[in-house]
Design brief:
Blueprint: H1 5-9, H2 19-26, H3 32-46, H4 62-81
Helix pairs in contact: 3-4
């Protein structure tokens, strides 16, 4: 049985209210370079001053979650830390 991202990737993407599609489009996931690009885009659009990552979902084995966390820390985090600080809004 497929779960998580693989299951959602099989779904029809034409439904604008597809909760799986909404979730995937609004979360940071994927290869390290994809994560950095997504975080950069979120930074440009919303100017957040912090990022919270969830590395373990549902029944995911702990070893897999730890491997994801270590990969993110090693390959994505250094690039994210180099992103310019977004300007503060005056609104």
């Amino acid at each position: 049985m497929k779960v998580g991202v693989s299951l959602f990737m099989q779904n029809d993407r034409s439904d604008p209210y597809d909760m799986g599609a909404m979730y995937l489009s609004n979360q940071v996931w994927g290869r390290p370079e994809m994560c950095v690009a997504k975080i950069e885009r979120i930074r440009e659009l919303m100017g957040p001053d912090h990022f919270v990552a969830v590395m373990k979902y549902g029944g995911m084995p702990l070893a897999e979650a730890e491997a994801s966390m270590r990969l993110f820390a090693r390959e994505a985090l250094p690039a994210v830390q180099k992103l310019p600080v977004p300007p503060l809004s005056v609104a």
